[in-house]
Amino acid sequence: MQDPIMPVSILPASQVPAPPILQVSGLHKWFGTLHVLQGIDFSVAAGERVAIIGGSGSGKSTFLRCLNFMEMPTSGRIALDGTPLGRASAGKPDEVRYPESELCRVRERVGMVFQQFNLFPHMTVLENAMEGLVTVKRMKKAEARERALRELDKVGLGNKTDVYPGRLSGGQQQRVAIARALAMEPEILLFDEPTSSLDPELVGEVLRVIRQLAEEGRTMLLVTHELGFAYHFATKVIFLADGVFHEVGTPDEVLKHPRQERTRAFLERFTEFSF
Amino acid sequence: MSYQWDFSPVLTRWPLLLDGLLNTVKIAAIAIVFGVLVGLVLALLRLSPRRSLRLPAAVFVEFYRNTPPIVHFFWFFYALPVVLNISLDPLVAAVLALSTQSGAFYAEVFRGGIRSIERGQWEGAKALGMTHTQLMRRIVVPQAATRMVAPFVERSFELIKTTALASTLAYGELLYQAMMVNSETFRPLEVYSTVALLYLVLLVSCSALARVAEARLTAYR
Amino acid sequence: MDYAFDFALVVETFPILMRGFLVTLELWLPSLAIGLAAGLVLALARLSRSRLLRGGSLVYIELFRDTPVLIQLIWFYYAFPILIGVQLSPFTAALLGLALNTSAYGAEIFRGGIQSIARGQWEGAKALGMRHADMLRRIILPQVFKLMLPAFTNRAVEVAKMSSLASVLSVHELMYQGRLLSSTYYRPFEILTTVAVVYFVLIYPATFLSMTLERRMAGKG
Ligand SMILES: Nc1ncnc2c1ncn2[C@@H]1O[C@H](COP(=O)(O)OP(=O)(O)OP(=O)(O)O)[C@@H](O)[C@H]1O
Ligand SMILES: [Mg+2]
User: Fold this and answer.
1) Of A166, A253, B20, B91, which has the highest C-beta tally within 10 A?
2) Which residue of A29, A31, A70, A190 sits with most ligand 1 atoms within 8 Å of its CB, as the best mutation to test the pocket?
């Protein structure tokens, strides 16, 4: 990678185990007859940064999307701050029902950044960043504007506020999308391959923003194929294969000294990958 | 061919034709308003997750799209009153026929517009914590609306042209007034040419208006 | 609602409706065929190098598209004797009127098809040293026919619906028989509903075909 991504390991990877803010237990996801996630147990503590790697179609996106209910888990429970989400029906612990209002509240607290940005093309950059605040949080326009501007400044787009997304480069659009998510002040941020649809020369500017968020100590989950970045970014790396977490550990353990044959075989395919 | 064109008997009866033109505009405007309402309801039903709502709406839409408008006019004017034991005046029957029929077409315009919005937009909005209503109102409908303009205008043009069928119920719109003028003047070619020209002017000015509206709505692109 | 639907009457009058149905077919298919053939000629005129041909065909097409069909049919009914000097039967007048209307819409379909195909392939065919006419006939048109099949089917649906307007000229087609029967027996509900159903049975297969073709092409593309 041309862009010199500075290591972020400046921060000690939480020495004292913080209580988990997100907990997943027994998560299964079926698409028709396809068993994509086959029983996942997992938790994230405040300040943790998790990188999820794995082959194409292994279910990385599906896992991430279950966490904010973009996909509905087929079975298993997810808990935020120790409170299990949804209501299990009596006698059938596998049938969990999620009222819309609860899902909306969860999504407010768990932000997401998509591979395809998904900015709203009919709104300016500033309006995009304000939208969640005004519509969902019912914040006053002036206050929302102030906060949106602050986040746009942070991602380096304070000078593009009145432009429509269609006029921006991919890298700029993705930074707006990050600002839009940040404005909601989420407790956890989910990134699904945020740089995969960018031209190579634009990848760096987005990764730099994500690194900056890491330095702030935010809790983040990142699905990525940028193994070099994952190494420096993450406090924990997960290798997902066959619908389960095949290997979990520190970046050093998983990326440099993998114990599983499967992980090693996966990593070998990334010839250009260097730390 | 030595036909002697003579427009003067027709042109001296211009108040009759003007009356007809105004009635055409009136019936078209009323039918567009009601048609949009019918179309919205049908589109919502067709987009519903419940099959028991989707299916009847689909049948209604398909039935209207696959039968001739003149049948609807006669059905509402002659058949419906017999069943309900009421009487409808031509204007009401014509508006009912036009707005149910165009409603079926508008429904497809609305539904097509909504379904054309990419999945990413729905997800982007959901991920911010929006409810279904909020994301429809703020994200999906505003974008869909701009894509609906062109097909909506096209359907409305069809509706304006279809108002001519109200003449078969003896409602005094442009074509009916033309028939009246014709029966007084016996100059069918002049009468119907004049009326055709009036329709042309009406539709061409409507399409100019529509273009202005569309340019405004899609300014962000 | 305590209206008693008189099925016996439907059964009794059905043969008469079927006679009308045959006339509808006789109007529909020939006017569609003649209209589309003429539409191809018009489309070539629209795309020709001569300004006169381009302008003339444009005016012709817009005149038909921006006025109600019913007025066109009535106009031609009165105009044919004057224009060609022969008194035509209402059936022939309606058939020709429908064909002329179809030619205008057909021309737009052909033009769109030719333009979309031609853009890429003109060069290739030129490189093979083909003449303009050969190119059109051998390379472009076969593809246009395929590509525009859903649009043609759609036109067929519209023409079928339009053919019901011939009842206004007293052509004894389905709608005319329906109107006659419903006033004779004074059972408009039974008769007109049956007429609507018969039209639906005639038209829906074409709509279905058009949708299927469209979907299949979208899948390929
Ligand atoms: N909505 C869906 N319906 C049916 N199958 C789906 C759906 N979404 C994903 N899948 C399937 O589930 C499997 C996992 O998909 P997922 O997108 O989670 O993989 P991924 O690890 O993110 O892959 P990539 O690296 O290509 O993004 C794939 O086989 C995919 O085809
Ligand atoms: Mg993915």
Assistant:
1) B20
2) A31
CA nearest to B200, candidates C65, C100, C72, C66: C66
Q: What is the pLDDT of residue A4?
A: 44
Q: What pLDDT, on the 0 to 100 scale, is given for residue B219?
A: 67
Say how far apart CA B25 and CA B11 lie, in whole Å: 20
Does C56 contact B at CB distance below 8 Å? no
Under a CB-based contact definition with an 8 Å cutoff, are residues C167 and C176 in contact?
yes
Task: Tell me how many domains chain C contains.
Answer: 1
Strand arrangement of the beta sheet that strand A188-192 belongs to:
A110-113, A188-192, A219-223, A49-53, A236-241, A244-249
Q: Which of A253, A254, A246, A245 is nearest to A42 (CA)?
A: A245
Greatest CA separation found in chain C? 76
pTM here is 0.85
Q: Which domain holds residue C11?
A: 7-218
Question: What percentage of chain A reaches a pLDDT higher than 90?
Answer: 83
Q: How far, in Å, are C65, C73, C173 from residue C169 at the CA level?
A: 21, 8, 10
Asked if residue C85 is part of any domain, the answer here is yes
- Measured CA angle at C62 (ends C77, C56), to 5 deg: 90
- The pLDDT, as a whole number, for residue C221 is 47
Average pLDDT, chain C: 90
Cα distance between residue B124 and residue B143, in whole Å: 14
Which domain CATH number covers C11?
A: 1.10.3720.10
- Residue B87 sits at the chain C interface (C-beta within 8 Å): no
Per-residue pLDDT averaged across C54-78, rounded? 94
Largest CA distance in chain A: 57
Give the pair of three-digit tokens for residue B211: 């273009």
User: Which residues in chain B are contacts of C187 at CB distance < 8 A?
Assistant: 82
What's the CA angle centered on C93, arms C89 and C95, to 5 degrees?
Answer: 115
Looking at the domain assignment, is residue C184 inside a domain?
yes
Q: What is the C-alpha separation between B177 and B170, in angstroms, rounded?
A: 9
Tell me how far the alpha carbon of residue B152 lies from the centroid of ligand 2, in angstroms: 37
Domain total in chain A: 1
In a domain, A255, yes or no: yes
Task: Please tell me the distance from the alpha carbon of residue C40 to that of residue C43, in angstroms, as a whole number.
Answer: 5
Residue C1 is assigned to a structural domain of this protein: no
Q: Chain C closest CA to B188's CA: distance in Å? A: 7
Return the higher-pLDDT residue of B215 and B188.
B188
Burial C208-219 (b: 16+ CB within 10 A, else e): ebbeebeeeeee
Q: Which residue has the tokens 């008693």?
A: C4
Q: Which of B213, B138, B115, B116 is nearest to A122 (CA)?
A: B138
Q: Does position C106 have pLDDT exceeding 50, yes or no?
A: yes
Nearest CA to ligand 1 atom 6: A31
State the pLDDT confidence band at B209, using cuts at 50, 70 and 90. Answer: confident
Distance CA B204, CA B157 (A): 10
- Residue-level pLDDT at A3: 46
Q: What is the CATH number of the domain that holds A263?
A: 3.40.50.300
At residue C130 the predicted structure's pLDDT band, cuts being 50, 70 and 90, is low
